[in-house]
């Protein structure tokens, strides 16, 4: 039997499931033996259990097909120009500028970047926790994009999240990052990319500290740290 919108009976609601149980009960013979009753109850459990499995598979497939994975833009996608905030080597804001977006072929990025950085920034991979260079770094400085050198985060907003990835409660400038819906797993997340070159940096979550309540969970290999004196 099928429920609403073509889903198995587990999605049909409590009332529909009750009706199904009543129907099955009506099929019980008056002279049914104990062994026959056990077999019938086992068959009923199989019907509902099987429906649950099918429902879970259908629901998982639906999520996978309706929410796409976040990925960096291709050379022929996205805006030709972007507006970003620039910072000096001493960490001071120097101004807001509109510049051409940094666009390179996949082969060019692969040649330019270390292997781990290439897979994370250009193919939205994730480094293993507690393995990156910056998750427990406590020095004062700026975190710039490994691909284009755009300033992304300041050590002033870095905190220990206990996750094994470098975490910040806000970017150095909201103009310098862009959020994207990421459906690569069975939960919908918010991916964070570099505004200038669209490198994948990590994800942002709503479980960070005050004053923003945000946790920008970044990959170390997507950034390079520039120490401030």
How would you describe this protein?
There is one protein chain. The protein has helices spanning 14-26, 34-66, 106-112, 115-123, and strands at 81-87, 93-100, 141-145, 151-154, 158-159, 167-168, 177-182, 189-194, 200-205, 215-218, 223-227. With 229 residues, it is of the alpha+beta class. The chain has two domains: 4-66; 81-227, Peptide methionine sulfoxide reductase (Metal Binding Protein, Guanine Nucleotide Exchange Factor, Chain A, Beta Complex). A hairpin with a 5-residue loop joins strand 1 and strand 2. The longest helix is centred in the first third of the chain and has 33 residues, at 34-66. The N and C termini lie far apart (70 Å).
Short description:
With 229 residues, this protein is α+β, with helices and mostly antiparallel strands. The protein has helices spanning 14-26, 34-66, 106-112, 115-123, and strands at residues 81-87, 93-100, 141-145, 151-154, 158-159, 167-168, 177-182, 189-194, 200-205, 215-218, 223-227.
